[in-house]
Design a protein that fits this description.
2 copies of one chain form a homodimer. With about 270 residues, chain A is of the alpha/beta class. Chain A is built from 9 helices and 15 strands. In chain A, strands 1, 2, 3, 4, 5 and 11 form a 6-stranded mixed β-sheet that branches. Chain A has a 5-stranded mixed β-sheet with strand order 8-7-9-6-10. In chain A, strands 13-14-12-15 form a 4-stranded antiparallel β-sheet, sandwiched between helices. At the A-B interface, strand 8, helix 8 and strand 13 of A face strand 8, helix 8 and strand 13 of B.
């Protein structure tokens, strides 16, 4: 079984279906990112497709933190999906009668400019998923509430699209990764991810970045997250070009492990 | 007027009061971080106290993004406050009868372990603020719903504390900054913040980190945020020790400006 962040009708559902297009395994729905990653970690499901980064909102913190602190898993694949948000309400509802907008915080954030422009007086309320919001409108038959989410929600919950593609930035994409207990050892992997932390002293992070640059490795991303011990202590997530079996990347990682702490190789995989 | 993120009874309210203890200006409540920062930018209020980072949840993205993209302000001061979350419900409600927990996503995240342990069957719903959740319970007189937030909410909204200090990690602190249109030029500033972006090519970020290390400047923090153009393009926020008037920091910043783009000095201020 391969898990995705449910319920049906979310972008995660859409991404998991597209990513796994030619695989036979059955998809199963899990209700939170934390539970989804833990299910793989405990061996209850074979793998999970989880969102890790959005081009506007940034990293999905729960995914990063669960990977760092609460599981021992590898990233084995990557899939990038363009996100098209839609403002939806019950059939017959008109934009000028919308008094309330409900959705997951992510779509709300991705449409903040549109909301400020057209619905500055509307009450904003958060739900656990885009599908939960759509379902709520269907059940309460509330003509003055709209939701924001994937077009699939309209069909699944009997809503009508009032504004298609209403996200502020059109370059709105989410990167998903597939997580497994075993690393991907295939030769065509061209991207790798790592976690580490450094001493809180001058030049400590510099030494790590230097090891990467010195070995001619291209760093694609560096992200910091709190170590959760005290303010000012961080763990770092880096993505680089290359396979861990490449000589230069292997050498850079050996050098990093000599200078940094809590080093964790998160896997090599094919760019999505 | 000095703005804070309202309504009354939030941690931001508490922090603004503590930070401004000996100042005479009147505090005013603004309902979103974006509106708060824009109010200073437009000159409607003299300054704003906004949350910028939590030791568990990480950066407050709205604050970083509004500082980078939608305002021309300086950080003039910093204040760190320890956060104590409390599970609260109507007087007489018992933990075993709680079926629903409502609060802002931040306190929910900070108590995820506690919720998983004691209230794994409870429905979780997000509200716009801790105070909004407390008010909702007061108004609906719902004995089966609890909220999580600052103890001040109990007094303001007639609730009782069921579990004091229920945050998972005890080292739970939030860093607030004061924003103004003019930079803080006093000599006792000992921390500085900067924004920049770099080319998406090998070693580009390394050059910036090298300029900092070479000049003996201690980098306290580096954080990346999406540039919002496409996946894989980032802007960087760095905090360093020192005052921009210090020779070594001034020199490092000049070097960074030669290699990086969209460089923005965010101000020198006293560590909180």
């Amino acid at each position: 079984m391969i898990g995705y962040l449910g319920p049906a009708g979310t972008f995660s559902y859409e991404a998991a279906h597209k990513y796994l297009k030619d695989k036979k395994e059955q998809l199963c729905e899990v209700s939170s990112i934390y539970a989804l990653i833990k299910a793989v970690d405990k061996g209850e499901i074979a793998s999970a497709v989880v969102p890790i980064e959005n081009s506007l909102e940034g990293s999905v913190n729960t995914t990063l933190d669960t990977l760092a602190f609460d599981s021992e898993l590898y990233i084995c694949g990557e899939y990038t999906m363009y996100i098209r948000e839609n403002l939806m309400a019950l059939p017959g509802a008109r934009p000028e009668s919308i008094k309330r907008i409900i959705s997951h915080p992510q779509p709300i954030g991705q449409c903040a400019g549109m909301i400020n422009k057209f619905f500055s007086d509307a009450v904003i309320e958060y739900t656990n998923s885009t599908a939960a919001a759509a379902k709520q409108i269907e059940e309460t038959k509330d003509m003055t509430t709209a939701t924001i989410g994937p077009a699939a929600c309209a069909g699944l919950y009997g809503l009508e699209i009032l504004m298609p593609e209403c996200n502020d930035e059109k370059n709105n994409a989410t990167r998903f990764v597939e997580l497994k207990k075993q690393e991907n050892t295939s030769a065509d992997c061209d991207k790798s991810s790592f976690i580490f932390t450094v001493d809180n002293k001058p030049g400590a992070l510099f030494k790590v970045i230097e090891a990467i640059a010195e070995n001619g490795v291209n760093m694609l991303k560096i992200e910091s997250r709190p170590e959760k011990k005290e303010l000012g202590r961080y763990i770092f997530f880096i993505d680089t070009d290359g396979n861990i079996r490449d000589e230069n990347l292997k050498r850079a990682w050996e050098m990093i492990k000599e200078t940094a702490y809590k080093c964790k190789f998160l896997g090599s995989y094919r760019k999505g």
